[in-house]
Amino acid sequence: MEPILMRHRPYDPISHEFKLDTHSIRRVQDTDQGRNYPITFHVVADDKVQVSTTTNTEADSIEDCVQPHGARLVQLFWRMVQPSYPILFKAGFMEKYQRSYRRISPALLGAVYLISLTWWSYDTELSIQAPPDSRLLRQLTSQAIQNSYHLPRLSSIEAILLFLQCKPENPLNPDHTFVWGYVSQALAVGECIGLHLDCSGWSIPQWEKNLRKRLAWALFLQDKWTSMAFGRPSHIHGSNWGLEALTLADFDDLTPNPEVESNEYELAGKAQFLEMIHLSQYLSEIQDRFYTLNSSASQDCDELFCSIMPLVQQLQQWYIDLPASVSLTVRYQRQLSPHGYLHLAYHGVMMNLVRRLVRSAALPPRTQNNEVLSEIRKVGFEVAQAAMKLVTSLRPDHLEAFWFSASSYIFSLLGSFITLLLVTSVSSQERDHWQDLLNSYIWTLRTMNRSSEPMRYAANRLEGAILRGLEHALAIRPDESADFGFREAEKQEFDFSNFANWDLAALDFNSFDLLEGMDLRPP
After folding, report:
1. Are both 106 and 162 inside the same structural domain?
2. In this structure, how many other beta carbons lie within 10 angstroms of the beta carbon of residue 296?
3. Complete edge-to-edge strand list for the sheet that includes strand 24-29
4. Which H or E element spans position 347?
């Protein structure tokens, strides 16, 4: 409706609503970005919305799946998920839940139960019981999420985001269209309830302002990382994003008693969430500048090198400046360490950025600047080695902790990135190194994936899809007994500047690709 007309409604001075027969118009702020007309929402009563089932029926079906263990699953959620992924208002949730599970949105109730099943064995009472039917719980939660769109609330967004963090039903055949559809639906619902707007001046409680801001940035994370993982266009653009940066003040509602300081674990979780947002803003810039439909057409290697290397240096400095509280070396007393996903995400962004350079250098016309080509191979080497070092340094308390949904993709991206460096090798020495490292990484995934669902997905994706059909050509033999131990980057003796020995000019093509012209059929 025309916004100027909205300022002339006779709003109730207390509720700030103007009631009509079919709905109400609620004014949350008198001005919109300084303009003299209000920000308003159309509010419809729940009983006027037609859905296939009642919320009580849905909640009862979900509770039946887990009873009598619902309360213990909720406690697992506060221990394992909320500290590093703080998208719920704990005090409000628990006040309702302690009265009755029916007071919680069925979609959110199911999502909290479903994600908490991951840590079933970490509860002394639950560990000796048979776990619930997760498949049925997933189906009921998914249906409740779909029904919640008719009654859009913040809990609808919370439920979708938590559902997306759950283990896939079939890791061997993940449904990317389904996941991307959920992300898109979450963004659509979020826009309907104004999550893309700055709510700092709205006539709503402070806890809701904080929660809205955290949820909005959590949506930003989900959109950007799923966009990268699936190669889809991001739906969030800066021109329609009105939020200020998240700060520690936006977590105040997570500490019910302001006189009690948050413990070290909770403070580290807040810091990690903030840093993940900062990193995702870098990712957003990379996607916009180098991976849109138009920008990805540019293959000028020298020009890309000049654009990308400053970003590489900025990311490296960001990583150096990370607070000590989120370091991988931190250990907690009888608590899992969720910091692995932030560090893995950093390496994911670096690989996503540098692979654009490696790809452009391997496509015609080949750059004539050997110094640029040398630097590209060098930075690719350093990024791959650093990521491999991270993976092999992960401890059991890292692997068993909460991992952001994109982590499984990043684990597989490392294998794909190593393969890219292998097929674009410019010397036999470099090719042998990448073959060894790829075999070593596949073996690492095999030995570690029993403790990590994201690694299990990566192993399946790498061997079942990315490398399928190329095993013979790339000499991928992780089962053979050999010395495939990880080598520290500083011990390598590659001379990336000595292109005279590599004799690129003698190559009989304008680009270099190990697989070009090769018969890929197995013997």
Report:
1. yes
2. 14
3. 17-19, 24-29, 39-43
4. helix 340-362
Q: Name the residue among 372, 238, 247 with its Cα closest to residue 305.
A: 372
CB 117 within 8 A of CB 134: yes
412 and 468 in a single domain? The answer is yes
CA–CA separation, 274 and 286 (whole Å): 19
Token pair in block for residue 413: 């991206």
CB 438 within 8 A of CB 466: no
454: Cβ–Cβ under 8 A, 6 or more apart, which residues? Answer: 403, 407, 408, 411
**Is residue 48, in this structure, part of any structural domain at all?**
no
d(CA 270, CA 86): 8
Which residues, including other chains, have CB under 8 Å from residue 269's CB and lie 6 or more apart?
Answer: 82, 83, 84, 85, 86, 338
Which residue ranges of the chain lie beneath pLDDT 70?
A: 1, 5, 8, 12, 16, 18, 20-23, 26, 30, 34, 36-38, 40-53, 171-174, 255-262, 465-466, 468-523
Q: What is the DSSP string of 242-295?
A: -PPPP-GGGGGGG-SSTTSPPPHHHHHHHHHHHHHHHHHHHHHHHHHHHSSTTG
Owning domain of residue 76 = 55-254
What is the separation of C-alpha 440 from the centre of its chain, rounded to a whole number of angstroms? Answer: 26
What is the crossing angle of helices 154-165 and 106-116, to 10°? 20
CA distance 228 to 244: 23
Nearest CA to 283 out of 342, 353, 341 is that of: 353
Closest C-alpha among 100, 57, 94, 59 to residue 75: 94
Domain count, the chain: 3
